[in-house]
Design brief:
Chain lengths: 268, 137
């Protein structure tokens, strides 16, 4: 029987991740329970904090033969989330707990479970009259639903091979490359590492690292100074990425949607 | 006599409300202490409002349209049943709110230091959207 270990990694900013090796024979809810009870991270404040993953469920379930993801929202066209005109898919659920995160509504692992094929179809229908350059995945933390993210990318690729793909993740490349990230599905560390490599093969760019409110951003697409924009192939160059932008969409009902980088404060 | 219906709105700032109505081609009256609305026969109605589009700007059989400040600081739109039937309905009110939000957002964003970069009007399956872009510096 594989040993059950919980590894807590704490970076220089005091952010922590957990690795739950050996727990894959439990349900995810059980793993979350175990992690909530057993995972403690000592942040650089010296205080002992319990890392909780409230309400986490296994989003890696299938509806019939279809994989479902926990979806927060999507938009058909944005110029603030990567090169050109892009659709954006926001995953629901993130346990990283970055202080003063811009998008706290995406943190709970609860909400709409939607088949990845339906998400892709809805985006394609919404962009039918307005061709897009690619898709950007944000959240929430997309890598905490890594298997669903991979399948969603495949859904998009199967429909249009020309699309480019971008990712916002709170994890560093080092964490992802070593499988040290939390996943709501049941993959073990080695599987998580492989998942990341398969996702990375399909990505054109990613913005990586926790949001740190004390380190102002300057680089394109980065919310804080510690984050890194990585290019994974030659499709884009750094100059293709516009300086930080904020984008506000106002529906004809008066409903307002904000995306991008409102780092000077919320204007709504 | 056509009944007035109250519609809640997201409108809170009189300045942007008046600007939005002006952009739609109206000449709204502003009454800080409120003023009576008039019905299609020219009779004074019991309803009072703080921003008013007079019926002569609407149609020969219209009643005044009013925006009355409510206790929570937002305006309540007063739209007669008749006028709602000829197009001054929730959809029209949505358009007012869309323009209001655009003006308010641009002003607030500029005040915070954002630089306005552009505006797109996008037709979607769920209606027309206005997309505003700002750079951070």
């Amino acid at each position: 029987m594989q040993a059950k270990t919980i590894t807590v990694v704490i970076d220089e900013n005091g952010n922590s991740t957990i690795d739950l090796s050996g727990f894959h024979d439990n349900s995810c809810a059980k793993v979350a329970e175990i992690s909530a009870a057993a995972t403690a991270s000592r942040r650089n404040t010296g205080r002992l904090l319990i890392t909780r993953v409230p309400g986490v469920r296994n989003s890696n379930r299938r509806a019939g033969r279809r994989r479902v993801m926990l979806l927060h929202a999507s938009t058909a066209a944005s110029r603030a989330n990567g090169p050109g005109l892009r659709a954006v898919v926001w995953f629901q659920g993130c346990s990283l707990q970055c202080a003063n995160c811009f998008n706290p509504a995406t943190h709970p692992f609860e909400g709409r479970h939607v088949p990845t094929s339906e998400v892709a179809e809805a985006v394609f229908q919404a962009t039918a009259t307005q061709p897009i350059d690619g898709i950007t995945f944000s959240g929430g933390e997309p890598m905490q639903q890594a298997a669903d993210l991979l399948e969603l990318i495949e859904e998009f690729r199967n429909r249009d091979r020309r699309l480019s793909f971008g990712l916002f993740t709170g994890y560093t490349e080092r964490e992802l490359g070593s499988g040290r990230y939390f996943c709501v599905s049941r993959e073990a560390g080695e599987q998580r590492r492989n998942l990341w490599y398969r996702i990375r093969e399909r990505l054109d760019f990613a913005v990586m690292g926790r949001y740190n409110q004390h380190r102002p951003a300057s680089a394109p697409l980065c919310s804080s100074g510690n984050q890194r924009l990585r290019l994974f192939n030659s499709r884009y160059e750094m100059r293709d990425f516009a300086p930080l932008q904020m984008e506000i969409t106002i529906a004809d009902s008066g409903l307002v949607h904000l995306t991008g980088f409102p780092i000077l404060g919320n204007p709504l | 006599m056509s009944k007035y219906l109250e519609c809640n709105t997201v409108l809170g700032d009189r300045k942007f409300l008046v600007a939005a109505l002006a952009e739609l081609g109206y000449h709204p009256e502003v009454h800080p202490d409120g003023a009576a609305l008039f019905g299609y026969e020219g009779r004074e109605r019991p309803e009072r409002a703080h921003v008013i589009i007079r019926r002569k700007e609407l149609s020969p059989a219209s009643n005044d349209i009013g925006f009355a400040r409510s206790a929570d600081g937002r305006f309540v739109a007063l739209l007669s049943e008749y006028d709602q039937q000829i197009g001054y309905d929730r959809k029209w009110l949505g358009k007012v709110q869309q323009i209001y939000k655009e003006k308010q957002t641009i002003a607030t964003a500029r005040a915070k230091g954002y630089v306005f970069q552009g505006r797109d009007v996008v037709q979607t399956a769920s209606g027309q959207q206005i997309r505003l872009r700002f750079s951070v510096r």
